[in-house]
Amino acid sequence: RMCQENELTLLLSAVNLGHLMVPLKSQTLNGLVELSGEGRVGFLKALKELGVSKLADRQALVSAIARFSRGNQIGPAKPNKKPLHDMLLSKDFAKLNPRSAGSIKELKALPVLGSGPLLPGESLNVRRPSACIRLIVMYGAADSAEAFSEWQTNTPPWLEVRVFELPGHGARASEGVWSLGKRQPECTSDEVLAETLSSERAAIVSRVVDELMPLINGPL
Fold first, then answer.
1. pLDDT at position 52, please?
2. Which residues are within 8 A (CB) of 176 and not within 5 positions of it... i.e. 6 or more apart?
3. pTM
4. Which of 29, 23, 24, 22 is nearest to 5 (CA)?
């Protein structure tokens, strides 16, 4: 049990929810994973009953547990055997993706992307005008673009990594969270909240597409 408690502490710290160890002091990581089996709405309700009073904390924890359940490791990632920024498109990409080896010539023949527009919250140094492939990253609810900064700096020159910063996160924290629209009162039931989030989904997707479309200036 002590090991499981340490795992829960580690997970909470990794997603900036360390303060939740107070209301969750009697819980274990495996116990929360079992609770997540009740579905998102049921899990949110259970966390509220356990003393996680803030809605944002409950949502962030639900997302973190979901990532853990899918096999994401807790703690620092193991370093790559070969630094990503030293990889060559023609050789190393083929080794990492043997099924794609036949398309290497097509990849090498791609035109350069040029200086595309900045996404909201981005800084100028994320652009790589000489790159011919652009990777657009969309992270989970408990992350921020800053967590992917190494992806942007340690990539080979042919790859540009652009991270879509969600409103209400990181550099766009002042904008408020899209998924909630107008902030919901704490007394809102999880069932009503789930219906609200579902009804707003189409509008959210439309806004994401509108912001990303200026970057889609090449073959997909």
1. 92
2. 167, 168, 183
3. 0.49
4. 29
